[in-house]
Design goal:
InterPro entries: FN3_sf (IPR036116)
Helix content: under 10%
Structural class: mainly beta
Largest sheet: 6 strands, mixed
Number of domains: 3
Distance between the termini: 79 Å
Number of helices: 0
Order of helices and strands: EEEEEEEEEEEEEEEEEEEEEE
Protein name: Fibronectin type-III domain-containing protein
Radius of gyration: 35 Å
Strand order of the largest sheet: 7-8-14-13-10-11
Strand content: over 45%
Number of strands: 22
Length: 311
């Protein structure tokens, strides 16, 4: 052997047209710092020449230089089609489905690595596994998720050049309904626990004040309430289902332009002790306009539903 020479050519060329012939005596490994073009299919040509001037040549398979990372077209998210009533909260404890869209125009997405871990302890709930680059969703199943727990799914997307990008999404779990509370009414039939409010259950014409306490949710918290009123159980002929926001402070929720009814001297104060029981959370209050006026002696039912942040 007299010498070897090598060069780089475009895929359809027969002679080096990207990096011209380089003569070398190396037979196994060669490193060169030439800047090669991206987004173009290339091949390496190698030729060996003997002392008689005869030669033999070979070429590599075509390859593409891809310096870019995969592109996130739709970020990783928890699917709202499985186990979700409200974004970021799961109401099931054994399955999580995540979805995404990642692409790579140069070399394509080769594979994904996906895992699931628990925020509070950092414990891996689902060990990383490799899935094909053709997929755009994955379901973690046979899980044992804890109410109030926060879980993070992590996705690593890799193209055929070996360049990867990482993204993650978190979701909390609450499979249980809130703890039931009760109306906080200062009436003859209510015990005095220091949680009544003045005018907490009072009426004037077609307007009613109500107050309630004790609805709690240790996992996701209370988000809102719905109230309806009628002359029968679950009736709504006096008040169609009306939504009232929850407050972490004792406030008065007024419906549209209806002011709070002031029947006593100060309708916005609480009971004699001036505060609610700490374990019951603040007293909630609302002033609502009914569809018709009330008359003395009428009986009606208040139907109150607490909804947590997981819905």
């Amino acid at each position: 052997v007299a010498f070897h020479r090598w060069g780089v050519a475009s895929l359809n060329a027969s002679t080096p047209d990207v990096l011209n012939w380089i003569v070398t005596a190396e037979t196994k490994f060669l490193q060169h710092k030439a800047k090669l073009p991206t987004r173009t299919w290339l091949k390496v040509l190698v030729e060996t020449v003997n002392n008689a001037g005869l030669s033999i040549a070979t070429e590599s398979m075509g390859f593409l230089i891809d310096e870019s990372i995969p592109e996130i077209q739709v970020p990783l998210s928890v699917s709202d089609a499985v186990g979700q009533l409200t974004p970021d909260w799961l109401v099931v404890d054994d399955v999580i489905t995540v979805e995404w869209v990642v692409s790579d125009q140069e070399s394509g997405v080769k594979e994904y690595w996906i895992s699931l871990w628990y925020h509070d302890t950092g414990r891996i709930t689902f060990e990383p596994i490799k899935i094909p680059g053709l997929l755009n969703n994955f379901t973690f199943h046979n899980l044992d998720l804890k109410d109030g727990g926060n879980y993070t799914a992590q996705l690593v997307s890799c193209n055929r050049a070996g360049t990867c990008i990482r993204q993650s999404v978190s979701v909390a779990v609450d499979t249980s309904p809130p703890v039931t509370g009760h109306l906080a009414a200062a009436t003859d039939s209510a015990v005095d626990l220091g949680r009544q409010t003045e005018d907490g259950l009072a009426w004037k014409d077609n307007q009613v004040n109500i107050s309630w306490v004790g609805f709690q949710d240790p996992h996701s918290g209370i988000d809102r309430y719905t109230i309806q009123m009628g002359t029968t159980w679950f009736g709504s002929e006096l008040l169609q289902e009306t939504e009232v926001e929850h407050s972490d402070e004792t406030v008065i929720s007024e419906s549209s332009d209806v002011p709070y009814v002031e029947i006593e001297a100060d309708s916005k104060t609480m009971g004699d002790n001036g505060s609610s029981n700490a374990h019951e959370a603040p007293i909630q209050m609302a002033s609502l306009r009914l569809q018709r006026s009330l008359t003395p002696g009428i009986s009606f039912f208040v139907h109150l539903v607490a909804i947590n942040k997981a819905s």
